[in-house]
Amino acid sequence: MTHPDAMTRGRGLTLAAMSASQAMILLDVTIVNVALPSIQRELGVSASNLEWVVGAYTLVLAALILVGGALGDRFGRRRIFLAGLAVFTAASVGCALSPDDPELIAFRALQGVGGAAMAALTLSILVDAYPGERRTTAIGLWAAIGGLGFGLGPVVGGVLIQIADWSAVFWVNVPIGAMCAVLTIAGVRESRDPSARRLDPLGAVLAAVGLFLLTFALIESNRRAWTSAPVAGTFAGGVVVLGAFVLWEQRAPSPMVPLQLLRGRRFASANAVFGLLYLSLAGMFFFVTLYYQNLRGWSALKTGTSWLMMNVPFLLVSLQVGRLVKRLGGRLMIGGGCLTAAAGMFVLSSLQHDTGFWLAAIGYVLVGLGFGSAVPLVSSEAMSDVPGPLAGIGSGILNSARQVGASVGLAVMGAIGVGVATHAWDHKVQSLPASVQAEAHSVRQDVAGARPIHLGGVAQSDAHDAFLTGYHWAMAAAGVALIGAGGAAFAGLRSRTKVAEAR
């Protein structure tokens, strides 16, 4: 019989390990964003490949997170979690040592493989360790510490880049990963689901390939016309493969995504809301970072610290959301939060060459308040439509929706921002002196990413104008996506009673 003190100690170590791991996964999202301009300058990365530095991680994470959960349920959650942690930590070392962008992108994808196993299992390991009466408190701490990692990422990244270089944002994962491994080995007990669903390898491959092809087409459209064979062909291929995925899931003996779940109005709507929320957030981080560091000349530390104007309101509201939802209801909190965040995006979309930070601060606060109101409640609204036996797979689908929104959304907003910026630059090049036109055409990608170019005063100003045009369109697109998320929340998260009365 296990001694009570040993059980308590084991639970404490489990909570520490899972919380630190979740914080590291979320830290990796925001800490890398603030390092993008440094990576861009030191490795000579184009605007398109810079999107892949972020997108490769989130895309692989989205495609494999359901597979990670299924492997853990079948072969042991602790075992698969440790394997994912080892892959994530080793890939972080590979990222830090990468000499060029193709190698960095490859290791970022490998990070996504490890992150998928970790992200899929931290919550289920925690649920297994804590009995019902203590579970709520444990999950609350797990979520709060994870949110702290997300919020501190830009500041930590700015400090590390200030004292070292961009590789430090990946080296920081090594001691955290080692600590998590020690805590997991010492305190986490093995668990599995005796009635675990069978694996769906064909479904996993079809989903991963389809998402990759769509994302590749969107990012490649920054450099080629939509009618070109590489873009049109891969986009059509992505649509066909995802169509095959849907057909397979309808007849698979153990589908990775049971389609009956998506027929639940609240579940489907919550997934749409989650995807649109993170579509806009991923694009905002990408473009605002380029705006402040490349166009305005801010340091990584100053940029990261400025994001506290968004992260602090997010944390303050998310900690009060349980009390607020009793008065306002989940539908109003989520829908209103989306619209508040949309207002913040439109404020950020109005920034010019020399706009004072006070205006950006208003946008940051609105985005933080909106996301703090909406994000913590989406999961509970989604899971209200999910039968108990499918709770694990439902949670995994929701997590995947977030990652798909971030990866595909970054590609969509990148296609808009880079496409508009390069079009504006091509138009401006026609009025430049003939002596610089040839060189001006060769730096289209640099202009789209607001990288410093040396074409003389007039051309430099035109390049900044072109980037700002693309930035304005991309940020406006983020605002429109959040309006769509608000609409989906108000329309799709109505209570069943009200729906019945309406009929």
Report on this model:
The structure is a single chain. With 503 residues, this protein is mainly alpha-helical. The protein folds into 3 domains: 181 residues, Up-down Bundle (Growth Hormone, Chain: A), CATH 1.20.1250; 54 residues; 238 residues, Growth Hormone, Chain: A (Up-down Bundle). The chain contains 20 helices and no strands. The longest helix has 40 residues. The protein starts with a helix and ends with a helix. The C terminus is likely disordered.
Alpha-carbon distance between the termini? Answer: 57 Å
Low-confidence stretches: 497-503
Oligomer: single chain
What is the CATH class name of the largest domain? Mainly Alpha
What would you say about this model in short?
The protein has 503 residues and is mainly α.
Highlighted features:
single chain; mainly alpha; 0% strand; 503 residues; 20 helices; Growth Hormone, Chain: A
Map the helices and strands.
Elements: H1 4-43, H2 47-75, H3 77-97, H4 101-129, H5 132-163, H6 168-171, H7 173-187, H8 201-220, H9 229-251, H10 259-262, H11 265-295, H12 300-306, H13 308-328, H14 330-348, H15 357-383, H16 391-429, H17 434-442, H18 444-448, H19 457-492, H20 496-502
Helix pairs in contact: 1-2, 1-4, 1-5, 1-7, 1-11, 1-12, 2-3, 2-4, 2-8, 2-16, 3-4, 3-7, 4-5, 5-12, 5-13, 8-9, 8-16, 11-15, 11-16, 11-19, 13-14, 13-15, 14-15, 14-19, 16-19
